[in-house]
């Protein structure tokens, strides 16, 4: 078991779990807020305190959902029409076939929406266990985070995927260049009063029948790729399309 009370050594497994877990916790509130805005769940616009006191929730229609229009107008213009590799003038047939096999015509639209709303989405690429061909899944930024080298956004150091299982425990998959390390939290999420508990969670190895621990990474690189909206060197490298409207409100 990884003990959260001991001193964390930079680069160790528990150090990465705590470091990346805190990043997931820290961005949950703003990302959830923008998700609500996109869904039309937002405070009444231009309503004074006296108005709210007098009418409460009687006029939800006053909260016009212009936020979704901002995102959808961008997303409707984003369509992948082919893949070229290097200087080749023609599209790569194999890459395009893999794209179609993974239904990425539709799945990429989800990635674009997530990135526009929350500032970033992720694509996880891994060999299919049966065919060994590339399998691509789109991942939520509420569950996945990637750390890159400072000043080298293309060079990924580590990634974490963390989610709540049906029994109330967190599962975590830590992606490093040499392998995938799987963990299960000793505690249940219900034992804590707040969702931000990465710094105190105790993790144990999640050993799955038929798998080695860790699972070897044949790629030698982090197989999770960020899809970043408005990439920047500062400010966390990602920005929601709704953040500027939120500040203007």
Count up the helices.
6
Overall mean pLDDT:
85
Class based on secondary structure composition and strand pairing: alpha+beta
**Topology as a string of helices (H) and strands (E):** HHHHHEEEEEEEEEH
DSSP summary, beta strand count: 9
Proportion in helices: 25-40%
How would you describe this structure to a colleague?
This protein has 249 residues and is α+β, with helices and mostly antiparallel strands. The protein has one domain. Helix content is 29%, strand content 24%. It contains 6 helices and 9 strands. It has helices at 13-39, 49-55, 67-75, 93-101, 104-118, 243-248, and strands at 120-127, 134-139, 144-149, 152-164, 169-176, 179-188, 203-205, 215-216, 224-228. Strands 3, 4, 5, 6, 7 and 8 form a 6-stranded antiparallel β-sheet that branches. A hairpin with a 2-residue loop joins strand 5 (169-176) and strand 6. It is globular and about 60 Å long. 24% of the residues are buried. The mean pLDDT is 85.
Describe the structure concisely.
The chain has 6 helices and 9 strands, in the order αααααβββββββββα. The protein is an alpha+beta fold.
Please render the helix and strand layout as text.
Blueprint lengths: L12 H27 L9 H7 L11 H9 L17 H9 L2 H15 L1 E8 L6 E6 L4 E6 L2 E13 L4 E8 L2 E10 L14 E3 L9 E2 L7 E5 L14 H6 L1
Helix pairs in contact: 3-5
Features of the shown structure:
alpha+beta, globular, about 250 residues, six-stranded antiparallel sheet
